[in-house]
Write a structure and sequence with these properties.
Elements lengths: L1 H35 L3 H37 L1
Helix pairs in contact: 1-2
């Protein structure tokens, strides 16, 4: 029973990590679009998309960190 719970926690940890890494890639991609935008309107829109991507990445990092704490707690028992 404990092993199943730990396995589930680790599976969720891996999923949270993968989600966070996807958001990291989105941050890099939106930054590249922002950095290469020339027209003021396009640059403003690209910056807004970049900020949104940063916010999403931050939220995903918190989910990953919380899941990591749960795994650490489960394995410390």
């Amino acid at each position: 029973m404990i092993t199943d719970t730990r396995t589930d926690l680790v599976d969720q940890l891996i999923s949270a990590y993968c989600d966070w890494r996807e958001h990291c890639r989105d941050v890099h991609a939106t930054y590249e679009r922002f950095a290469s935008a020339i027209a003021p309107t396009a640059r403003r829109q690209a910056f807004d998309a970049y900020r949104t991507a940063l916010d999403s990445e931050e939220r995903a990092s918190y989910v990953y960190a919380d899941q990591l704490k749960l795994v650490e707690l489960a394995y410390s028992r």
